[in-house]
Structure formats: structure tokens, C-alpha cells
Amino acid sequence: MKKTILIIGGGGREHALAWKLKRSPRVGKIYTAPGNAGTSSIGENVTIAATDILALANWAQNNKIDFTVVGSDDALALGVVDEFQKRGLKIWGPSKAASQIESSKAFAKKLMKKNNIPTAEFETFTDYQKALQYIEEKSTPIVIKVSGLALGKGVTVCKTLDEAQAALKTAMIDKAFGEAGSQIVIEEFLEGQEFSIHAFCDGKNFQLLPSSQDHKPIYNGGLGPNTGGMGTIAPVPWISEAMMSEVATTIVKPALDGLKNLGSPFVGLLYPGLMAINHPHLASPLKGEEFSVPLPEGEGSGEGAFKAIEFNARFGDPETQSYMRLLKTDLLDILEACVDGTIDKINIKWSKKSACCVVLTSGGYPGKYEKGKTITGIKEAEKMEEVIVFQAGTSIRNNQLVTNGGRVLGITAIADNLQTALNKAYAAVKLINFEGMHYRNDIGFQSLNVKGG
Ligand code: AMP
Ligand code: GLY
Fold first, then answer.
1. Is 189 near ligand 1, meaning CB less than 6 Å away?
2. Tell me: the pLDDT tens digits for 193-227?
3. Closest ligand to Cα 154
4. How many CB atoms are located within 10 Å of the residue 54 CB?
5. Which of 158, 310, 311 to mutate to test the pocket of ligand 1 (most atoms within 8 A of CB)?
6. Burial (CB count within 10 angstroms: exposed 0-12, middle 13-18, buried 19+), residue 64
7. Model confidence over 404-447: pLDDT tens digits?
8. Going from the N-terminus, what domains does the chain have, and what CATH number goes with each?
């Protein structure tokens, strides 16, 4: 019997998950709550917010859902997995307790410290005056983070003391992030190159996905405010296998063991955001200039060559859009293995190709932007070989596809090498249009001159 699936979330990540699940011979109907126009073309959308966990559990129960996949971090933080499990419903994702590794930066930092996971020096504060005194004693740049979830906007990298004072006031006095800002983490600024690691976990064991890299700032060269993510590549050519195994032993395993020791084993996808420091291939910060320093043969990472910036308790967006293009194994088999505690028994196969995703946003994002702009060109773009467009902030109005969010589309491509994949994706971008459309045209750029890139 084919399985009926519910996916919780409504972004590009969820469209990519739905697209991949649809290719499984064991998957029947796919519902997405709340979904977007992309997910409605694959299955059916359910108009329940990802945060309304009781309504989601009731709906899943009434509609005989066989397996639920959680995309959204908010749903996890609210305990959607615990609620489903209480009712005997099968669901993929970490419990509320385990997902604190993302929903509370103070919790995550404590876990890292206790388990000797390399990370930036830090202090946590609930008292404004004490926090203020601390930043006055420290040097800049310094990083100020609200502890709770803040849509990727709760982190400020402060170059000057003035900026740090302003960031503290915004979070702790003006309460711009509400309760999320009642606790603050202040940490040392790490200079380097960020990359993303993903691991499928079953509470005891885990398997790494290929490396990937997001590009968070809104403008080319890493300029402007941070967004949810403007584009990804996978795998990252300058991350060697030696470095991946070091990440597994020094970051992923101790985090999972630490959670298990707290009585909260992690089942689902653990996504540490890491900073590569002094990597021989990279200069920092990158300003879009060409890189010509080759990666040495057999490059291993060496002690202290990367540090954990944060942990997420779910798939990255837009990392997932690139990953789903490379994954060869049936995604349902993998997700079920996580829930069943058998992730060590499954042989997960990945394409040897390179994947990329270029995100198209509404003009003004991550600040204010307008919705309802007509989108054209997706059909034409998807006629290109190996190009697939995943939708994020989209909806259908009067039979037309229109923008309905900050990040609107993710244009993905795969090819034998990164350069060709990027060329294809950017050629496809040229075919798409909506009023105010913005994108970065340097996704993956800094990885191009590397062996294997
Ligand atoms: P986070 O939500 O903790 O991942 O922070 C969001 C972004 O802020 C990261 O992706 C980095 O670009 C930046 N960031 C966070 N912590 C640091 C740090 N200690 N040093 C430098 N940049 C950081
Ligand atoms: N790629 C950024 C995120 O998913 O948080």
C-alpha cells in the first residue's frame, strides 16, 4: 500500500522535499501544510499554519496520514513531534527537547561547551546592564544573538561598540524580537568561510549528506543584511573527505551524544552551520574577487580549522533544493530509517554531479516587499536540461502564479562540474521574470577555482 504523506512547512525546502518524495514508488498522495503553489502542483495543500500543531495533529489523524515530515523549525520548537507521537502518529523530526539545539542558542552553546565542540567564545545574559558592561570590556567586531528563534534575523555582527550597544538595546530594551530576545548570547567574531553540514540521525547513529554552502547576505560579495539564504552549492569543492570525517567526529557525534546523554536523543536532520577558519583555499571576507590559491593535495582540516556557529534541527533552505537534486536513494526509505533507528543499515547514494540553487527574491526583501507580482518563465526555464525550479513564496491568484513571500523561487541545476551547473542555473534565471525580482549573481563563485569545482 502506498503511503500518504504530510509535509509541514511552506517554503522552497518543502517543495523540494515533496518533489523528491513524489519520485518514491512507495509514496501515494502528498499533502503540504500550508505549502505553496509549487507543492500544490505535486499534491494538495492544507490551509493550516505550520505553527498550529494541534490542528495539524487533528488533521493528520482524521485524514489517516501514514507519515509526516517536518520542514519548519517553528513547528519543531513548538513540539509538533511530541504531539503527533502522543497520538501514535508516525512523524519524522526531533522532539521539542532535542530541537532546543536550534530553538535556544543558549542551550546550544552550553551543549557545545560541555561536549568540547569547537565554537566561538561566548557568554549568555538576561540582564541588560551586565551585557552592556561585557561588550564594553570586549573588543570589536563582536556578535550579538538573541537566544530564541527570530527568522534568521536575530544575529547582529557588530563592527563597532556603537553598533553593539544599539543591537543590545534593540533586543533587550525595545524587545524587537519579543521573548526570543529575553536571553542574549554574545560571542567572539569568527572570520572565515561558512559552510553547511547535514546529517540524517536516528537518535544513536547518523549519516552525513555531502557538504554544501549557503550565501546568506542579500548582495553579491557578502554585502548587506542577512537573509534566510540566497543560494547554495553542493558539494563544496574545497571541503575534503578528511575534513568531512573530522566534522563528523568533532562536531556531529559529540552533539548527538550530548543530546542522548540529556535524555533527548535527536531523530531527524541535524544541520550544523560551520566556519572554516584559515582554510588554505580561502581569503576572508570574500568580496567577489577571483580566487587562485589552489587546494593542496589531500588537504585535511587540522586542529581548529573550523568551528560550529550554530546548530539547526531541520533541513536547510535552500540547501535542501540542491541536495534533492543529488540524492539517488528513495527519500522515504531514509526518513523511515531515522524514525525506526536503522540509519546505519541504509546505503544512501548520491550523484557525483554538482548541484546549485539560485534564489530569486521579491524587491526589498529581507526588509519590506510587495506581494502579488505575476511570475513568468518557469515553464521555459524547466525546458532546459537538468534545470528544476522550486517554488517558495508563491501562490495562485486568478489562475496566475504570483509572488507571495520574500524568497520566491529557487532555480536549481545539476551538471558534471560546478561551473556548468552555475551556468545552467543562471541561464535559466534569465528566462524568469517578476516585478522587482532580485538575486545574487555570485553564488558558488568563490569555489570555482578549486580542484573538483
Ligand atoms: P546564526 O543564526 O547563529 O547562524 O547566525 C547567522 C549568521 O551570522 C551566520 O550565518 C554568520 O554569517 C553570522 N555569525 C553568527 N555567529 C558568528 C560569529 N561568531 N562570527 C562571525 N559571524 C557569525
Ligand atoms: N540555509 C539557512 C537555513 O536554512 O537556516
1. yes
2. 899 999 999 999 999 999 999 999 999 998 998 89
3. 1
4. 11
5. 310
6. exposed
7. 999 999 999 999 999 999 999 999 999 999 999 999 999 999 89
8. 3-93 (3.40.50.20), 127-182 (3.30.1490.20), 193-345 (3.30.470.20), 354-449 (3.90.600.10)
